[in-house]
């Protein structure tokens, strides 16, 4: 397996490079996720993450405490500010994108010295407008953290026509009329404002 595919973690396999069920690279005890989630292979053999128990809308799921900063975005990284990214070293990496997401990921940017305060760089919460059912897949809206995704993909989230964005390539490529329907992190709102101001000049 090449370093590029595994993004520095030897067990992590890019799901677009092989067919069939992929063994998860992380024990569910990493980031103490064993009480809240289970792994499940989806129809394509890719990994996904489902809830062990029902959780009420808006409720806290976990903080992101197990990660390593990465200099650039990859197919598996999460953007934590306008300029910073992390590789998540836990089952959180297997949370797929959906255009009708069940959770929000709020990222906490590093401080001016590049340090994540208390070692925490984000929080997972159930979306504000509906409960997360036991057995339901945890999904988030990738453009809520990613401004430009390094590897766009055709979305298979299954949301109805008019809801599914079709191609997931990052917030930069989406109209405000779509973005305004979703929870967005502060760095994404700021980068979108910069995009729109540039377009006016
Ligand atoms: C960090 S991985 C998510 C976990 C992935 N399913 C796995 O088995 O490793 C991100 C990759 O999963 C795939 N993916 C995630 N959400 C998807 C979606 N809604 N439709 C199609 N592919 C998706 C894409 O290949 C994407 O680059």
From TrEMBL:
Annotated signal peptide: none
InterPro entries to which the protein is assigned, alphabetical: Flavunoidine_N-MTase (IPR053201), SET_dom (IPR001214), SET_dom_sf (IPR046341)
Pfam families per the UniProt record, alphabetical: SET
Residue ranges of every copy of the SET domain listed in the record: 34-143
Protein name (database record): SET domain-containing protein
Source organism: Arthrobotrys musiformis
């Amino acid at each position: 397996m090449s370093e590029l595919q595994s993004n520095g973690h030897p067990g992590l396999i890019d799901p677009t490079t092989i067919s069939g069920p992929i063994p998860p690279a992380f024990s569910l005890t990493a980031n103490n996720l064993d009480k809240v989630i289970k792994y499940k292979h989806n129809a394509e053999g890719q990994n996904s993450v489902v809830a062990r128990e029902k959780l009420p809308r808006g409720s806290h799921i976990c903080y992101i405490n197990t990660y390593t900063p990465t200099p650039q975005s990859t197919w598996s990284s999460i953007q934590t500010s306008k300029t910073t990214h992390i590789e998540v070293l836990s089952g959180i990496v297997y949370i797929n994108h959906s255009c009708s997401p069940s959770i929000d990921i709020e990222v906490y940017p590093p401080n001016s010295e590049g340090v994540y305060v208390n070692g925490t760089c984000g929080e997972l919460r159930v979306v504000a407008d509906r409960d997360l059912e036991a057995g339901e897949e945890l999904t988030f809206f990738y453009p809520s953290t990613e401004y430009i995704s390094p590897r766009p993909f055709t979305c298979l989230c299954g949301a109805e026509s008019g809801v599914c964005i079709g191609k997931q390539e990052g917030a930069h490529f989406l109209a405000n009329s779509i973005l305004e329907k979703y929870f967005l992190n502060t760095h994404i709102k700021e980068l979108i404002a910069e995009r729109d101001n540039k377009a006016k000049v």
